[in-house]
Structures are given as structure tokens and as C-alpha cells.
Design brief:
The protein folds into 2 domains: 3-86, no CATH class; 94-308, 3-Layer(aba) Sandwich (Rossmann fold), CATH 3.40.50. 36% of the residues lie in helices and 19% in strands. It is of the alpha/beta class. The strands form 2 sheets. Strands 5-12-11-10-9-8-1-6-7 form a 9-stranded mixed sheet. A 3-stranded mixed sheet has the order 3-2-4, with no helix packed on it.
């Protein structure tokens, strides 16, 4: 897929109906030869819309008007290039806990949670958040995570006794620059996501998880070995593997399958494919929620919807 096609697809499949600003901006970039030429000077894994738009917002540049955005990018490209090369789209969306919770509810308690691609570790606190699935309310909060769910199995808060994360560049929510980067990655109209980011960051700051700088293949077994023996190990990840080259994805799958405990994946089916999937509920970009390699449900990227299709 060309860079132009990537930005056009982002507008149509991810931003539409979620962020009119990013939909409009992505469409404009997809047609702008000068901007596309600049983006193409970045490494392939640094060309995605979320990263570019996040960097511009982090630098306090404009995103609401495509013409102003274009002027800012062309005038400030050296700094944008530098920031894009050193940063990653570490969107730490705690809303994804709403789609993880049904699977966590199924597992033998208590749990030791180990997140791959943990960023600042905000998805390591599913037991501390509140949830609303239509009329069903679970837990307290704040934050309260809202999820439109169909076919939902029985859900309860998990008993989490250990939480740790692995990331190439762990973020610290007590560092203003790290928290500022997480804030910049939230889409402009999504004030509810911004509010829950800061509520979740307060929880993590008060009770920090064990975050380890490391590789998802080479360093996973050592961190998994540190979990308490009387807890069920749960290795999980959400929208992470698209940043990992395909051979390393295969190697990761081999490593995680060899560990005791369970593996929860919530990834784009083009990145982590499964056979015999039903049709997704709509044309929006959906991820597949899976337990130990068995697909269970379709989910939307920020945890805002879940369509369960497997037997409970």
C-alpha cells in the first residue's frame, strides 16, 4: 500500500465517524504530493497517520485546518522528522480493557497480567476501572469505560495480584513529557478519551506497575518467570503487532505459546490472521479478540464496541 493509500484508508476506515478532524486531514494528505514526498523520507514504520498527527499535536501545531497543518509541517519538517524517528504510536488506550474484561473473567483467578507493548501500563488495571455495557454497570471508577457490546458472556472484575509490562520504550505517567505524548496521541474530538487517560494515569502513578524495557521475543520469558506461582499468568497485547515485522510476530507466537498460563490477543486480522472468521459487523477497522489462538469477538480500536461471535 502506498503512503497516499494508507492515509486515504485511515480516513475511510478508522477516522470516519470517530474524528472528523483526522478524516478531513488524512484525505487532504493523501492528495498532497509535497506532504507525501516528505512522509516518504521517513522509515516505513514511521509513516502512519497517527504518528505524524500526534507529533504535530505534541509540537503544538494545528490539525483542524488542512491548509494550516500543511504550512506547519513544511515549515517545521526537520523537527517533525526528528520527533517521528524517536517516537512510536504508543497509544495507551485504557478503554481497551472493556473488551479484555470478558476474557479475563473466564480465567482461573487470581491473575498475573503481563502486557506486551505496554507503553505506560494503563491497560494493566482492569480491576480498578468501572465499565458500562449498555445497561450493565460493573465496578466503580473513575474512569468508567463505555462499550457497546453484543453477545456478551458473563463478566466480573478480575482479581489481579501482579502486573507487569514489556516495551521497547516504556513511558512514565509521572513524567510530564511522557504524559504529554500520550495526550497528543488522543484524537482531537475525543475529550472523553483524554479525561479517562488522566484518570487512569492517576491510578498508575499511585501504584506503578513493573515496566521493563525489552523485546517481545527475547525478553518475554524472563519477565514471565517473575510472576507469582500461585497466579494465572496472562500475556496480552492490543494493537501492537502491526509495528512488529512478520518474522518476529511468528517468533513471538512461538514464545508465548510455550509459556504457562494464557495468551489474549486483540489485533488486526491482517496482522494476526485466523481461519474461518465471520464477517465483521461493519466496514470499520476491526480487531479480533482471541484467547490462546481461538478467535472470540470483533472489537473496535479504542474498546468502544465488542461483537462476541464464539460460544461462551
Amino acid at each position: 500500500m502506498t503512503v497516499a493509500e494508507t492515509y486515504a484508508a485511515f480516513a475511510a476506515r478508522e477516522a470516519r465517524g470517530v474524528s472528523p478532524t483526522y478524516e478531513r486531514l488524512s484525505e487532504a494528505v493523501s492528495r498532497d504530493r509535497e506532504l507525501l514526498a516528505l512522509i516518504e523520507t521517513l522509515p516505513v514504520d514511521k509513516r502512519q497517520p497517527n504518528l505524524l498527527f500526534g507529533v504535530v499535536r505534541f509540537l503544538r501545531g494545528p490539525v483542524h485546518d488542512p491548509a494550516d497543518f500543511r504550512d506547519f509541517v513544511t515549515e517545521n519538517w526537520p523537527e517533525i522528522d526528528r520527533q517521528a524517528r524517536r517516537r512510536a504510536t504508543q497509544t495507551n488506550e485504557c478503554g481497551r480493557c472493556a473488551v479484555l474484561l470478558p476474557v479475563l473473567s473466564m480465567l482461573p483467578q487470581p491473575l498475573a497480567l503481563l502486557e506486551v507493548g505496554a507503553s505506560a501500563g494503563l491497560c494493566l488495571y482492569p480491576d480498578r476501572y468501572g465499565y458500562r455495557y449498555g445497561d450493565q454497570r460493573i465496578g466503580g471508577g473513575p474512569p468508567v469505560l463505555e462499550c457497546a457490546a453484543s453477545g456478551l458472556p458473563p463478566v466480573r472484575l478480575p482479581d489481579v495480584v501482579w502486573r507487569g509490562g514489556l516495551d521497547l520504550n516504556p513511558l512514565d505517567v509521572t513524567d510530564p513529557a511522557d504524559l504529554g505524548w500520550l495526550d497528543a496521541l488522543i484524537w482531537p474530538e475525543n475529550d472523553h478519551r483524554r479525561a479517562r487517560l488522566h484518570a487512569a494515569a492517576a491510578i498508575a502513578a499511585a501504584d506503578p506497575p513493573r515496566l521493563v524495557r525489552g523485546d517481545l521475543v527475547d525478553d518475554l520469558p524472563a519477565l514471565a518467570a517473575k510472576t507469582p506461582p500461585n497466579a494465572t499468568l496472562v500475556v496480552f497485547h492490543t494493537s501492537v503487532l502491526y509495528q512488529v515485522p512478520e518474522p518476529r510476530r511468528r517468533a513471538f507466537a512461538e514464545v508465548v505459546r510455550a509459556l504457562p498460563g494464557h495468551w489474549i490477543a486483540n489485533e488486526d486480522p491482517h496482522v494476526l490472521p485466523y481461519e474461518g472468521l465471520p464477517e465483521p459487523p461493519s466496514g470499520a477497522l476491526h480487531s479480533v479478540l482471541a484467547l490462546d489462538g481461538r478467535p472470540l469477538a470483533w472489537t473496535l480500536p479504542h474498546g468502544q464496541a465488542l461483537a462476541w461471535f464464539a460460544d461462551h
